[in-house]
Amino acid sequence: MTIKNLPAAPADRPRVSASSDLLPMALERWNPDIRAAADDENTISMFDPIGYDYWSGDGVTAKRVGAVLRNLGGADVTVNINSPGGDMFEGLAIYNQLREYKGKVTVQILGLAASAASIIAMAGDEVRMGLGAFLMIHNCWVGIAANRLGLREMADSLEPFDKAMAGIYAAHTGGDIAVMQTLMDAESWIGGSDAVDQGFADALLDSAKLKEDPKASTPQQIAARRLDVILAKQGMPRSERRAMIQELKTGTPGATGSGTPSATDPPAISASVIADFEKALASFKSAASTVPGV
């Protein structure tokens, strides 16, 4: 297979304003400590969420990937992936960059290539996958605040992106688009051996290529991600979660008010969730106190 035979991904975002978000399940299953034992000569490492990462202020973006590819000047490149996904539209842009790159692209899925990261992986001329690694594919998942007309328009706007992604998976695997759409509808988690059998990957990755680095994430990042999962499960939009975590980092409390709750107030959070939140908050504050400059 050559990447020249892969379809291009749509470059535009939906007309209705929305934010592409991480699935809580992907974030829970992601082990950010998994790394490559050693980098090849020309390597791009994707070990963060796709798009801007508000936990670390970094993230895997098309701008960063494009700059690296320009510097490589067409030389063969290895792309190491361990990412829970993130901004699907940023992932599609990165997929297009790798698809159009003149050199050979070898993708190594070390731990997890979920959501947007799974699309990026499909741009590889060769895809190798760890035996314990997972590929997760699903339909576009976004957060939106809109009335019924806006929601309908968003659903219509997302449909071409879902079809395009199914086409990318089908072109890479040689499978049927309808089968890929069924896998996406089911939010499928595909292990290393199954990924090879189904054509998503070409070979399993030698375990000697992997390592687990306990210093890959700071205690603060770990606590912030745990807190993010709790809040995401309660349906809090990503922008609000980002603002809350930023307040915790800076120690600036949010505005609070008093009075009788209105009919538009969110439903009460269960006691178990509050307990988890308090534990995560305590862990976050403890971690933040040990990080200089926080």
Quick structural overview:
The protein is α/β, with parallel strands linked by helices. It has 10 helices and 11 strands.
Write up this protein:
This protein has 294 residues and is α/β, with parallel strands linked by helices. The protein has 2 domains: 3-212, Alpha-Beta Complex (2-enoyl-CoA Hydratase, Chain A, domain 1), CATH 3.90.226; 219-289, no CATH class. The chain is built from 10 helices and 11 strands. It has helices at 24-29, 62-72, 88-100, 116-121, 148-173, 177-185, 192-198, 219-233, 238-250, 271-289; strands spanning 19-20, 34-36, 43-46, 77-83, 105-114, 126-130, 134-137, 142-143, 188-191, 203-205, 210-212. Strands 3, 4, 5, 6, 7, 9 and 10 form a 7-stranded mixed beta sheet that branches. Strands 1-8 form a two-stranded antiparallel ribbon. A two-stranded antiparallel sheet has the order 2-11. Helix 2 runs parallel beside helix 3 (88-100), helix 5 (148-173) packs across helix 6 (177-185) and helix 8 (219-233) runs antiparallel to helix 10 (271-289). The longest helix has 26 residues, at 148-173. It is globular and about 45 Å long.
What are the salient characteristics of this protein?
2 domains, 7-stranded mixed beta sheet, 2-enoyl-CoA Hydratase, Chain A, domain 1, about 290 residues, alpha/beta, two-stranded antiparallel ribbon
With helices defined by DSSP (H or I, 4 residues minimum), what is the helix count?
10
CATH class membership of the largest domain: Alpha Beta
- Kindly state the mean pLDDT as a whole number? 81
The CATH homologous superfamily of the largest domain is named 2-enoyl-CoA Hydratase, Chain A, domain 1
Strand fraction equals 15-25%
Helix content: 40-55%
Q: Whole-Å distance between the termini?
A: 48 Å
CATH-assigned fold name of the largest domain: 2-enoyl-CoA Hydratase, Chain A, domain 1
CATH architecture of the largest domain: Alpha-Beta Complex
List segments where confidence is low: pLDDT < 50 over at least 5 consecutive residues. Answer: 254-269
Structural class: alpha/beta
Question: What string gives the helices and strands in order?
Answer: EHEEHEHEHEEEHHEHEEHHH
